[in-house]
């Protein structure tokens, strides 16, 4: 059974920092593109950052320069360091694992962790 378990969310003041972590089990996360998505109330889920199996990263324009995604393949984890947080970063953050295997896409989601940034 595949599980992605997020941790590290919480309440922080604007300008503060948070570090989210995602622990994967049931998969070898090093073979997957790992990503962080977020969904604010009334809005669609959007990509925040992703890191490929080869280590390439991609960031949403809204978080570039403030957020860093990293992975520890030995621990089967992916992390999201968020600095200079803004109230508009408030959302539920979801961990995602994604891989194309023989023409079939496999994707898994965590249950989400709430991030609230107060002004």
Walkthrough of the structure:
This protein is mostly beta strands and 119 residues long. The chain is built from no helices and eleven strands. It has strands at 3-7, 10-13, 18-25, 33-39, 46-51, 57-59, 67-72, 77-82, 91-101, 104-109, 113-118. Strands 2, 4, 5, 6, 9, 10 and 11 form a seven-stranded mixed β-sheet that branches. The protein has a four-stranded antiparallel β-sheet with strand order 1-3-8-7, with no helix packed on it. Strand 9 (91-101) and strand 10 (104-109) form a beta hairpin. It is globular and about 45 Å long. The termini are far apart. 30% of the residues are buried.
Shape: globular
Average pLDDT across residues? Answer: 96
Give the termini distance in whole angstroms: 40 Å
How do the helices and strands follow one another from N- to C-terminus? EEEEEEEEEEE
Short structural description:
The protein is an all-beta fold.
Summarize the helices and strands and which ones pair or pack:
Blueprint: E1 3-7, E2 10-13, E3 18-25, E4 33-39, E5 46-51, E6 57-59, E7 67-72, E8 77-82, E9 91-101, E10 104-109, E11 113-118
Parallel strand pairs: 2-11
Antiparallel strand pairs: 1-3, 3-8, 4-5, 4-9, 5-6, 7-8, 9-10, 9-11
